[in-house]
Amino acid sequence: MILSAVSFTVALGYGIVAPAIPSFARQFGVSVAAAASVISAFALMRVVGALPAGRLVERFGEPPVMATGIAVVAVSSVLAGFSRSFTQLLVLRGVGGLGSAMFSVSGQSLLLASVPSGLRGRASGLYSGGFLLGGISGPAVGGLVAAWSLRAPFFLYGGLLVVPALIAGIALRKAPRGTALNRPGPTADGFRALIRALNNRAYRAAAAANLADGFALLGVRAAIIPLFVRDALHRSPFWTGIGFLLFAALNGAALLPAGRMADMLGRRPVIIAGCAIAACGMAMLAVLPGLWAFLGALAVTGLGSGLLDVAPSAIVGDLLEGRGGILVAFYQMAGDLGAVTGPVAVGFLVDTESFAAAFAMSGAVLGLAAALAFLAPETRVPD
Q1: Domain's final residue, options 119, 152, 183
Q2: How many CB atoms lie within 10 A of CB 19?
Q3: Closest by alpha carbon to 374, among 260, 282, 295, 268?
Q4: Helix, coil or strand: residue 13
């Protein structure tokens, strides 16, 4: 529950600042593409920082790395609010991405190693639920704050992060000896564990599912859906918001049931179902015309995404050896890489072919992940 509260606060803060970033960047006289690159810089530095963050977790343990990562995001956010040039803003958001990688790797590593196998799916659902609630609440608050000042959301974000930083640095470090916080695991052993994991079909399936989730359900949804609503459906941004709300509602509704299924039936069938359901949603976007089909498709993809937020991470937890920083880092890096490359790849298809081709490609990526999961062994340890 403590980690869920931390994830909620971090996601709330990110949601508060996210709506203000493009408009704030535009104040420096840069193009729309350059303004969007501030968001990409954060995501790209999360990819770059994932494995170094895993090394730090292996060396120092989860709580200090988590506290430091949150502090880096907080300080960089406050400084970004004082930016006097586009370059300063871009660099500081990139630094924030490094801190975010430290937090997310250490947080998920701690979660997966701290709970028994029979509860790992449900714990992952609660943790993801914290991110989801924070991500839904943040933009509403951020929009109101940004209407007053485009710099204010950065300061509010930094201030909010003081609480989770203190929780990670003080409360979690006082956990009793013998818990997952005190597991041994030198860095070199972590990389040997990663090599063994990459030779494991289950780990490869989990990483592929996370990449597909990032590619189709995070990157494509955020970057392409608003353009689809405007250019193909000829509707206002209001309907983009309604579609995203349906996606989030079905995603949140699926998290805890998906966690129970992953703990009772196994990780593998939940991943296959999640990929298949989300791929069906993408197929609906590709072939069914009209507003109501669009809303139904986003509801279906949200349901599939809820399954994918739980089962792949549970597989990673099943395979941890000692501290899990490196295995968790590579797994998260796969998801971030999908979120970075997805909009670029499908954006090219939109420009050269059509929206239908872009959604079909997203469905194909999800289908490939489902096939890898079908060929993978089950990792759940029966009670």
Answers
A1: 183
A2: 21
A3: 268
A4: helix
State the residue for tokens 């009793």: 176
User: Digits of tens for pLDDT over the chain (383 positions)?
Assistant: 677 778 888 888 887 887 788 788 888 888 866 776 787 788 889 999 999 999 898 888 888 899 999 999 999 999 999 999 999 999 999 999 999 999 999 888 888 878 887 888 888 888 888 787 877 777 767 777 877 888 888 999 888 888 888 877 776 665 543 344 444 444 446 677 788 888 999 999 999 999 999 898 877 777 788 888 888 899 887 888 888 888 888 998 999 999 999 999 999 999 999 999 999 999 999 999 899 999 999 999 999 999 998 999 999 988 886 666 889 999 999 998 888 888 888 888 888 888 899 999 999 999 999 999 999 999 887 76
Query: Which letter does DSSP use for residue 320 in this model?
Result: -
Q: Are residues 213 and 148 in the same domain?
A: no
Gap between the Cα atoms of 335 and 218, Å rounded: 9
Assess whether 166 and 200 both reside in one domain.
Answer: no
Q: What would the two tokens of residue 116 be?
A: 């028994």
Domains contained in the chain, number: 2
